[in-house]
Design a protein that fits this description.
mainly beta, SH3 type barrels, seven-stranded antiparallel beta sheet
Length: 93
């Protein structure tokens, strides 16, 4: 089409993919907590020294599925993203 400038195609690295074991389908429609402050999440367990996989914004609703001994927990958000994050940054609904 005339008048449209298409951006150059870019192939993203494998690190940009969400691991299949970090997606729950169908995604939940009921939630137990919301993220109180902006905080990172991890596809892994979130051990010290791990690089964050992304960030939750305040107000993101999640379902708490597992609480580890210590500060971390596993949650799933409304898009089905199953990740580890800090429990102290969550607020019960």
């Amino acid at each position: 089409m005339e008048g449209f400038k298409r951006p150059q195609a870019v192939v993203l690295p494998d690190s940009s993919l969400v691991p299949p074991d970090c997606v729950i389908s169908p995604a939940p429609n009921q939630f137990t907590h919301e993220v109180a402050v902006a905080q990172p999440f991890y596809f892994s367990r979130g051990e010290p020294g791990d690089r964050p996989s992304g960030d939750f914004v305040p107000g993101t609703r999640v379902a708490l599925l597992l609480r580890y001994d210590g500060k971390m927990c596993r949650v799933v958000d409304g898009a089905g993203l199953y990740v580890s994050t800090a429990f102290q940054g969550l607020r019960r609904l």
